[in-house]
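Structure (tokenized):
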């Protein structure tokens, strides 16, 4: 989705160098987010049957090695942000703060799913800023991250249904563990409806292109399918989501 932000902001074709730097920053940021999550949750992961085989709980990687990975990811992210622009470098700590906070949220609030959504919403916003290098046209940038917030929060709720029983026993907060799976999936569906409404607004206010409609309708169908196939988390979370992301990118590319 970070490239969707790049192309949404672009008045002309972005340079290969910029695209490579954005990709490097995204890889670094994702590495930081995932490594922080593994480090912070390492004690919880020891007791969850779904996560017990992850690198730290299983002993495949020790804590010192995980910090090395974290530092390498952080260096890649910060150096890439600096090479893109000083503006991006100055804003680069904001996603890092979200990455640090959101793994802790499930210990205190079922709203933890929105932490995941906020983290992933930073991607298209960062891509937009990589092109503009300022807060100019900031209003144009908001709809795509807002879509990501609703979309990612919704699919994180679906994913969390795998841990409903464990979360209850461990005293962790999630929508499935606090409200039950059925109610949690209803909330997820509501968030995906909001995500689709946001996409409609994006097409109407920012893209102004009828050619975007097929991808818009495809995205809506995929969001519906994700809910319809929510019982099959492997399909809904790992496969349909990938197609949704590409559909949004295509929608923006054909419009510009």
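Design, position by position:
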């Amino acid at each position: 989705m970070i490239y969707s932000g790049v192309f949404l902001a672009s008045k002309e074709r972005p340079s290969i160098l910029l695209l490579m730097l954005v990709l490097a920053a995204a890889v670094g940021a994702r590495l930081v987010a995932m490594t922080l999550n593994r480090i912070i949750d390492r004690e919880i992961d020891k007791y969850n049957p779904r996560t017990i085989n992850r690198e730290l709980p299983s002993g495949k990687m020790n804590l010192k090695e995980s910090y090395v990975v974290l530092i390498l990811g952080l260096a890649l992210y910060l150096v890439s942000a600096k090479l893109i622009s000083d503006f991006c470098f100055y804003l680069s700590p904001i996603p890092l703060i979200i990455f640090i906070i959101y793994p802790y949220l499930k210990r205190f609030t079922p709203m933890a799913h929105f932490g995941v959504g906020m983290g992933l919403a930073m991607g298209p916003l960062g891509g937009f800023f990589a092109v503009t290098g300022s807060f100019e046209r900031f209003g144009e940038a908001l709809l795509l991250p807002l879509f990501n917030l609703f979309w990612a929060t919704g699919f994180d709720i679906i994913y969390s249904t795998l841990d409903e029983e464990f979360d209850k026993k461990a005293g962790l907060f999630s929508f499935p563990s606090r409200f039950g799976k059925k109610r949690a999936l209803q909330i997820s569906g509501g968030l995906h409806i909001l995500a689709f409404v946001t996409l409609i607004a994006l097409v109407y206010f920012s893209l102004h292109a009828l050619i975007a409609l097929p991808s818009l309708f495809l995205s809506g169908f995929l969001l519906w399918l994700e809910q319809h196939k929510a019982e099959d988390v492997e399909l809904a979370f790992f496969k349909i989501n990938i197609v949704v992301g590409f559909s949004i990118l295509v929608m923006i590319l054909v419009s510009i």
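Reviewer-requested clarification: Residues 2-255 form a domain with the Tetracycline Repressor; domain 2 fold (CATH 1.10.357.140). Residues 181-207 form the longest helix (27 residues).
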